[in-house]
UniProtKB/TrEMBL annotation:
Domain DUF5060, chain residue ranges per copy: 6-72
Ranges that cross the membrane: none
All residue ranges annotated as the DUF5605 domain in the record: 402-472
Protein name in the entry: DUF5060 domain-containing protein
Length: 495
């Protein structure tokens, strides 16, 4: 038995064990461990990693001494005990991302997390040169979340990459035989993203993925359990139980709730989990879904879904800047950027997609990674900076405004105008003095307007598209509980 004696909070504790290798251990041998520290208790399932090697991984959530005991159907793996010390987190270890309130995210240590994501669904299957280019591009970008498929999509498994499943003697795929080499490779890619400070959102099931249509309910559960056991102690992981659920014939939202519940029960790290679907195709009211993940070009839906479900909203597929022969993959960069800002100003988080077909074989960023070729990625980074400069707790307000607006009432306002070319805007704000910045979301500029503003005032604007205003109360200016007692007419905005 190989075991660590010390691990930091939200780190990865691992037991490495030797056990039976005959038959199909991944299916035939059960293995788990219970972990105790004071009144804290957690469980983690183990997984078979090939050549008679078994691993149990656990993410301790509290500092102190933890003890453990294994349970297994294999006598040599059953009843093993030990302990380890969990120390404080070091460096950039802030733990997994959680939801905070009805519209926000934060790391486990409380640090705010503003997801600005992209999609590179098959980047982990590419050759070493392209993978390195992808990581370099991500390091230089403002992206902090990458959506990727655990299983290869049809036709995307590259030469030299192991398959995730074994084969029958006649060559047919055997989804009962999980291949450790494939999942170890995926683990290396996740660790590379973590080293870049980027969250890996793992799509477990996709109708176009290798083996997805061959799995029975039992096969599906075995595969999902393996993924949770292997990756569930990694801090920088999110779960997307299924993408495009409508592509699975005969399945219902209840089937995906079953998977989400399984993930919630088995995931010792308590990671975020959802289903990415078109509006109306998933049960986002389920307690097992931590947030909402939408496939829709209507980014204005972000505010509607937050209001309906009281959960943060990610629009993970709002379309892509690109040149493909499908409307959703041929947006202009200006339209992609507009969707990013409109969704953000409505309290949601829109992923930045790119789908320019390259001349050297038709590869695209959205699928294969590499290097972004478009103009929206840089502007997504600018948006992230603008959002991070806002105070914590900004919320969408639809009650008084005729343009998408985030606010902390009486403190800060961010209003996005999109395609509307207003010549001026009128404001009436709570007592206090305010500064105003004019933001050009395309040129990526912030222009402080001269002077200070208070009470009822007018802002003259250049007549152009895609502008935003940021209004912030000056430190020491009056603001407090008395303002909250005013009626809804206290603040207004007029075209």
């Amino acid at each position: 038995m190989n075991v660590q004696s010390k691990v930091e909070r939200w780190g990865l504790f691992e037991l490495k064990l030797r056990g039976p290798s005959e038959g199909n251990p991944g299916e035939e041998v059960s293995l788990s461990a219970g972990f105790t520290s004071g009144s804290r208790y957690g469980e983690a399932e183990g997984f078979y990693d090939g050549d008679g090697t078994y691993r149990i991984r656990f993410m301790p959530q509290e500092e102190g001494t933890w003890t453990y005991r294994t349970q297994s159907s294999a006598p040599e793996l059953d009843g093993l005990t030990g302990q380890f010390v969990c120390a404080g987190p070091s460096g950039e270890n802030r733990g997994p991302v959680r939801t905070r309130g009805e519209a926000h995210f934060a790391y486990a240590d409380g640090t705010r997390f503003i997801p600005v994501g992209t999609v590179c669904s098959q980047w982990h299957l590419q050759d070493g040169e392209r993978r390195a280019a992808t990581l370099e591009a991500l390091r230089a970008s403002g992206f902090n979340k990458v959506r990727m498929s655990v299983l290869p999509l049809s036709g995307e498994l590259q030469e030299g990459v192991p398959e995730p499943f074994g084969r029958h003697p006649d060559g047919r795929l055997d989804v009962r035989l999980l291949q450790p080499e494939y999942f170890r490779m995926l683990e290396e890619r996740i660790n590379e993203l973590t080293a870049c400070g980027i969250e890996a959102e793992l799509v477990l099931l996709h109708p176009g993925a290798l083996g997805a249509e061959d799995m029975s309910t039992k096969d599906e559960e075995r595969y999902v359990r393996h993924c949770i056991a292997r990756f569930g102690a990694c801090a920088g992981v999110w779960w997307s139980a299924v993408e495009e659920p409508e592509g699975f014939a005969g399945r219902t939202p209840g089937d995906w709730n079953r998977l989400l519940r399984l993930i919630a029960e088995l995931d010792c790290g308590g990671h975020l989990r959802s289903v990415r679907s078109r509006p109306g195709a998933a049960d986002f009211g389920s307690p097992w879904a931590t947030h909402i993940s939408l496939d829709t070009p209507d980014v204005k839906a972000a505010s509607d879904y937050t209001r309906a479900y009281g959960k943060p909203v990610l629009i993970d597929s709002a379309g892509s800047e690109g040149n493909l022969d499908r409307p959703e993959a041929s947006l202009t960069p200006e339209e992609m950027v507009s969707r990013l800002w409109e969704g953000a100003a409505r309290g949601g988080y829109v992923s930045c997609g790119e789908a320019y077909e390259e001349a050297d074989g038709g590869r695209i960023w959205r699928t294969h990674g590499g290097k972004p070729l478009g103009k929206s990625a840089a502007r997504a980074a600018f948006l992230r900076r603008m959002l991070e400069e806002l105070p914590d707790g900004m919320r969408y307000n639809s009650d008084r405004y005729d343009a998408a607006t985030l606010e902390v009432r009486g403190e800060c306002y961010l209003q996005y105008f999109g395609p509307h070319r207003f010549a001026f805007r009128g404001f009436e704000l709570p007592e206090g003095r305010y500064t105003v910045d004019l933001i050009d979301t395309w040129q990526m500029t912030v222009e402080p307007l001269p002077g200070e503003y208070e009470g009822r005032f007018r802002i003259d604007l250049p007549v152009k598209e895609n502008l935003a205003l940021r209004i912030r109360r000056l430190p020491g200016a009056l603001s407090g509980p008395a303002e909250e007692e005013r009626d809804g007419t206290t603040e207004s905005i007029q075209a």
